[in-house]
Amino acid sequence: MRRRGFVKACAAGAGCLSVGPQWLLAAEQVTPREYEKVRLLDGRGEPLRAAALETKRNYVFHYPYQATPCFLLDLGEAVEGRNGLRTRDGKTYDWPGGVGPDRSLVAFSAICAHKMAHPTQQVSYIGFRQPGEGANGGKITCCAENSVYDPYTGADVISGPADQPLAAVLLEHDPEDDGLYVTGTLGGEMFQRFFDEFEARLAMEYLDGEADGRIRGETEVVPMTRFSSNIMRC
Ligand code: FES
Q1: How confident is the model at residue 26 (pLDDT cuts 50, 70, 90)?
Q2: 62: which of 73, 92, 119, 184 is 20 to 30 A away, CA to CA?
Q3: Does the Cβ of 112 fall within 6 Å of ligand 1?
Q4: Global confidence as pTM
Q5: Which atom of ligand 1 is nearest to the CA of 125?
Q6: What percent of the chain has pLDDT over 90?
Q7: Ligand 1 atom 3: residue of nearest CA
Q8: How many Cα atoms sit within 13 Å of 150 on the Cβ side?
Q9: CB of 99 closer than 6 A to ligand 1?
Q10: Residue 154 pLDDT more than 50?
Q11: Domains defined for the chain, CATH in brackets
Protein backbone atom coordinates (compact mmCIF):
# COMPACT_ATOMS: atom_id res chain seq x y z
CA MET A 1 0.00 0.00 0.00
CA ARG A 2 1.24 3.44 -0.85
CA ARG A 3 2.35 5.50 2.11
CA ARG A 4 1.31 9.08 2.60
CA GLY A 5 2.37 11.65 5.10
CA PHE A 6 0.27 11.65 8.21
CA VAL A 7 -0.04 14.73 10.32
CA LYS A 8 1.23 14.24 13.85
CA ALA A 9 -0.59 16.07 16.57
CA CYS A 10 1.41 18.64 18.42
CA ALA A 11 4.61 17.35 16.89
CA ALA A 12 6.57 20.32 18.08
CA GLY A 13 5.83 19.47 21.69
CA ALA A 14 6.51 15.75 21.49
CA GLY A 15 9.99 16.10 22.91
CA CYS A 16 8.55 17.53 26.09
CA LEU A 17 7.05 14.20 27.04
CA SER A 18 10.21 12.68 28.39
CA VAL A 19 11.62 15.71 30.12
CA GLY A 20 8.81 18.00 31.33
CA PRO A 21 7.41 18.15 34.84
CA GLN A 22 3.82 16.99 35.36
CA TRP A 23 2.28 20.45 35.21
CA LEU A 24 3.84 20.95 31.77
CA LEU A 25 2.51 17.62 30.50
CA ALA A 26 -0.99 18.46 31.70
CA ALA A 27 -0.92 21.72 29.75
CA GLU A 28 -0.07 20.16 26.40
CA GLN A 29 -3.03 20.52 24.06
CA VAL A 30 -4.00 18.60 20.94
CA THR A 31 -5.13 20.99 18.24
CA PRO A 32 -7.66 20.15 15.51
CA ARG A 33 -6.26 18.54 12.37
CA GLU A 34 -7.66 20.04 9.22
CA TYR A 35 -8.38 17.82 6.25
CA GLU A 36 -10.40 18.63 3.15
CA LYS A 37 -13.77 20.19 3.74
CA VAL A 38 -16.11 17.48 2.49
CA ARG A 39 -19.86 17.61 1.98
CA LEU A 40 -21.99 14.80 3.38
CA LEU A 41 -24.34 13.17 0.88
CA ASP A 42 -27.40 11.02 1.45
CA GLY A 43 -27.76 7.54 -0.01
CA ARG A 44 -29.04 8.96 -3.34
CA GLY A 45 -26.04 11.17 -3.98
CA GLU A 46 -27.89 14.33 -2.91
CA PRO A 47 -26.65 16.74 -0.23
CA LEU A 48 -27.59 15.38 3.17
CA ARG A 49 -29.93 17.64 5.15
CA ALA A 50 -29.71 17.64 8.92
CA ALA A 51 -33.50 17.42 9.07
CA ALA A 52 -33.39 14.13 7.18
CA LEU A 53 -31.43 12.32 9.89
CA GLU A 54 -33.33 10.03 12.20
CA THR A 55 -32.71 10.74 15.85
CA LYS A 56 -30.45 8.21 17.57
CA ARG A 57 -29.88 6.21 14.43
CA ASN A 58 -26.33 5.04 13.71
CA TYR A 59 -25.02 6.40 10.39
CA VAL A 60 -21.63 5.63 8.83
CA PHE A 61 -19.45 7.48 6.34
CA HIS A 62 -15.80 7.43 5.29
CA TYR A 63 -13.45 10.28 6.17
CA PRO A 64 -10.74 11.54 5.89
CA TYR A 65 -9.46 8.48 3.98
CA GLN A 66 -11.30 6.14 1.64
CA ALA A 67 -11.10 3.25 4.11
CA THR A 68 -11.52 4.99 7.48
CA PRO A 69 -15.12 4.79 8.77
CA CYS A 70 -16.83 7.36 10.99
CA PHE A 71 -20.10 7.55 12.89
CA LEU A 72 -22.68 10.32 12.49
CA LEU A 73 -25.39 10.64 15.13
CA ASP A 74 -28.28 12.95 15.83
CA LEU A 75 -28.56 12.56 19.59
CA GLY A 76 -31.89 14.37 19.70
CA GLU A 77 -30.87 17.02 22.23
CA ALA A 78 -28.32 19.79 22.59
CA VAL A 79 -24.92 18.30 23.38
CA GLU A 80 -22.57 20.49 25.37
CA GLY A 81 -18.86 20.60 24.68
CA ARG A 82 -16.45 18.82 26.96
CA ASN A 83 -13.10 20.18 28.08
CA GLY A 84 -10.06 18.22 29.12
CA LEU A 85 -10.50 15.02 27.12
CA ARG A 86 -7.24 13.12 27.18
CA THR A 87 -5.41 11.05 24.59
CA ARG A 88 -3.38 7.99 25.54
CA ASP A 89 -0.17 10.00 25.37
CA GLY A 90 -1.42 12.43 27.98
CA LYS A 91 -2.36 15.35 25.74
CA THR A 92 -5.66 17.10 26.31
CA TYR A 93 -8.25 18.68 24.06
CA ASP A 94 -11.58 20.44 24.27
CA TRP A 95 -14.39 18.88 22.28
CA PRO A 96 -16.80 21.53 20.92
CA GLY A 97 -20.04 19.53 21.32
CA GLY A 98 -22.97 19.13 18.95
CA VAL A 99 -23.69 21.20 15.82
CA GLY A 100 -26.79 21.81 13.75
CA PRO A 101 -30.10 23.56 14.41
CA ASP A 102 -30.51 21.79 17.76
CA ARG A 103 -26.75 21.31 18.44
CA SER A 104 -27.52 17.60 18.51
CA LEU A 105 -25.29 16.31 15.69
CA VAL A 106 -21.98 14.64 16.52
CA ALA A 107 -19.44 12.58 14.59
CA PHE A 108 -16.57 10.34 15.65
CA SER A 109 -14.06 7.99 14.13
CA ALA A 110 -15.52 4.48 14.15
CA ILE A 111 -12.13 2.89 14.83
CA CYS A 112 -12.10 1.53 18.38
CA ALA A 113 -9.29 3.06 20.43
CA HIS A 114 -8.40 -0.34 21.90
CA LYS A 115 -7.53 -2.72 19.05
CA MET A 116 -9.17 -0.84 16.21
CA ALA A 117 -12.33 -2.90 15.67
CA HIS A 118 -14.36 -0.98 13.09
CA PRO A 119 -17.43 -1.43 10.90
CA THR A 120 -16.93 -3.38 7.69
CA GLN A 121 -19.46 -4.54 5.13
CA GLN A 122 -19.28 -8.03 6.60
CA VAL A 123 -19.54 -7.27 10.31
CA SER A 124 -19.49 -4.48 12.86
CA TYR A 125 -18.50 -5.00 16.48
CA ILE A 126 -18.64 -1.32 17.31
CA GLY A 127 -21.69 0.94 17.08
CA PHE A 128 -24.24 3.17 18.78
CA ARG A 129 -26.76 1.25 20.88
CA GLN A 130 -30.32 2.45 20.99
CA PRO A 131 -31.55 3.84 24.31
CA GLY A 132 -33.14 0.95 26.15
CA GLU A 133 -30.85 -1.54 24.43
CA GLY A 134 -29.45 -3.05 27.60
CA ALA A 135 -27.06 -1.40 30.02
CA ASN A 136 -25.19 0.35 27.21
CA GLY A 137 -28.20 1.95 25.55
CA GLY A 138 -27.36 5.43 24.32
CA LYS A 139 -23.64 4.61 24.21
CA ILE A 140 -21.15 3.56 21.56
CA THR A 141 -20.08 0.05 22.46
CA CYS A 142 -17.34 -2.13 21.03
CA CYS A 143 -18.32 -5.76 21.49
CA ALA A 144 -14.84 -6.99 20.62
CA GLU A 145 -13.69 -6.48 24.21
CA ASN A 146 -16.40 -4.28 25.70
CA SER A 147 -15.11 -0.78 25.49
CA VAL A 148 -17.93 1.71 26.02
CA TYR A 149 -17.83 5.34 24.85
CA ASP A 150 -20.22 8.18 25.64
CA PRO A 151 -21.22 10.16 22.51
CA TYR A 152 -22.66 12.90 24.75
CA THR A 153 -19.23 13.67 26.19
CA GLY A 154 -17.02 13.57 23.11
CA ALA A 155 -16.93 9.75 22.97
CA ASP A 156 -14.96 9.63 26.19
CA VAL A 157 -14.34 6.15 27.59
CA ILE A 158 -16.86 4.98 30.18
CA SER A 159 -15.50 1.49 30.70
CA GLY A 160 -13.43 -1.25 29.10
CA PRO A 161 -9.85 -1.50 27.89
CA ALA A 162 -9.81 1.51 25.52
CA ASP A 163 -7.41 4.13 26.87
CA GLN A 164 -8.59 7.21 24.99
CA PRO A 165 -11.83 8.58 23.48
CA LEU A 166 -12.78 7.89 19.89
CA ALA A 167 -11.27 10.66 17.80
CA ALA A 168 -13.84 13.36 17.13
CA VAL A 169 -14.72 14.32 13.57
CA LEU A 170 -15.34 18.04 13.16
CA LEU A 171 -18.75 18.81 11.70
CA GLU A 172 -20.15 22.02 10.21
CA HIS A 173 -23.78 22.84 9.53
CA ASP A 174 -24.84 25.33 6.85
CA PRO A 175 -28.09 26.96 7.99
CA GLU A 176 -28.69 28.24 4.45
CA ASP A 177 -29.47 24.82 3.06
CA ASP A 178 -29.36 22.61 6.16
CA GLY A 179 -26.31 20.88 4.67
CA LEU A 180 -23.52 19.18 6.58
CA TYR A 181 -19.75 19.17 6.10
CA VAL A 182 -16.79 17.53 7.77
CA THR A 183 -13.55 19.46 8.01
CA GLY A 184 -11.06 17.59 10.19
CA THR A 185 -10.49 15.59 13.33
CA LEU A 186 -9.71 16.24 16.96
CA GLY A 187 -8.18 13.87 19.49
CA GLY A 188 -6.33 10.57 19.27
CA GLU A 189 -6.29 9.67 15.59
CA MET A 190 -5.33 6.08 14.79
CA PHE A 191 -5.17 6.22 11.02
CA GLN A 192 -1.50 5.29 10.60
CA ARG A 193 -1.87 2.29 12.91
CA PHE A 194 -5.10 1.33 11.13
CA PHE A 195 -3.40 1.22 7.73
CA ASP A 196 -0.43 -0.69 9.13
CA GLU A 197 -2.55 -3.26 10.97
CA PHE A 198 -5.06 -3.94 8.19
CA GLU A 199 -2.79 -3.49 5.21
CA ALA A 200 -3.29 -6.97 3.75
CA ARG A 201 -7.08 -6.91 3.98
CA LEU A 202 -7.37 -3.36 2.67
CA ALA A 203 -5.18 -4.23 -0.29
CA MET A 204 -7.72 -6.89 -1.26
CA GLU A 205 -10.73 -4.64 -0.70
CA TYR A 206 -9.27 -1.61 -2.48
CA LEU A 207 -7.78 -3.04 -5.64
CA ASP A 208 -6.87 0.42 -6.89
CA GLY A 209 -4.59 0.85 -3.87
CA GLU A 210 -6.60 3.84 -2.71
CA ALA A 211 -7.51 2.66 0.80
CA ASP A 212 -5.42 5.52 2.15
CA GLY A 213 -6.49 7.96 -0.55
CA ARG A 214 -8.00 11.13 0.84
CA ILE A 215 -11.74 11.73 0.54
CA ARG A 216 -12.30 14.84 -1.55
CA GLY A 217 -15.43 16.81 -2.27
CA GLU A 218 -18.16 14.51 -1.02
CA THR A 219 -18.73 11.41 1.04
CA GLU A 220 -21.85 9.32 1.33
CA VAL A 221 -23.62 8.72 4.62
CA VAL A 222 -25.54 5.46 5.06
CA PRO A 223 -27.32 3.88 8.00
CA MET A 224 -25.24 1.28 9.79
CA THR A 225 -27.93 -1.28 9.01
CA ARG A 226 -27.16 -0.79 5.30
CA PHE A 227 -23.42 -0.45 5.72
CA SER A 228 -22.83 -3.67 7.63
CA SER A 229 -24.69 -6.94 7.08
CA ASN A 230 -23.96 -8.31 10.56
CA ILE A 231 -24.15 -5.94 13.53
CA MET A 232 -22.90 -7.49 16.75
CA ARG A 233 -24.74 -6.73 20.00
CA CYS A 234 -23.36 -6.97 23.50
S1 FES B 1 -11.14 -3.52 19.86
FE2 FES B 1 -12.77 -2.46 20.78
S3 FES B 1 -12.70 -3.11 22.85
FE4 FES B 1 -11.00 -4.15 21.94
Answers
A1: low
A2: 92
A3: yes
A4: 0.89
A5: 2
A6: 83
A7: 145
A8: 14
A9: no
A10: yes
A11: 30-227 (2.102.10.10)
